[in-house]
Design goal:
about 35% helix, binds zinc ion, 7 strands, 5-stranded antiparallel sheet, alpha+beta
Length: about 120
């Protein structure tokens, strides 16, 4: 049984348990995997940063009630956030770094700023 290089897909001669034809292919394969991961992280970071800047833009004072549609119009993506924070009153805020929001009735959101120590 012969095997194929995981990177260049060429047939490997010699031992059948080899995964790469040579060191170059092995290194190239691992680098490309690393880059894929980095790309995903960078993409998500970019969205989170954008979300934060939208929250900051619509609420420069750090506490404002606005219509949810305003966030959507600015390109805010609700499925991306960094963490949740639940107050003593049981309100759960969704945060993008130091800016967070609480969903209110009537398609409104309360935006707050909370310094991260
Ligand atoms: Zn190869």
């Amino acid at each position: 049984m012969s095997s194929y290089c995981k990177y260049c897909k060429q047939k490997i001669s010699g031992r059948s348990d080899k995964k790469f034809c040579d060191t170059n292919c092995r290194v190239a394969f691992h680098n490309s995997r690393l880059n894929e991961k980095e790309t995903v992280i960078q993409k998500v970071n970019k969205i989170l940063r954008k979300n934060r800047s939208v929250l900051k833009f619509v609420s420069p004072q750090g506490k404002t009630t606005i219509g949810k549609s305003l966030l959507i119009n600015q390109g805010f993506k609700f499925q991306y956030y960094t963490h949740h924070y639940t107050t003593k009153n049981g309100n759960t805020y969704t945060f993008c770094y130091d800016y967070g929001y609480l969903e209110l009735e009537g398609q409104k959101v309360l935006i707050i700023f909370k310094q991260i120590r």
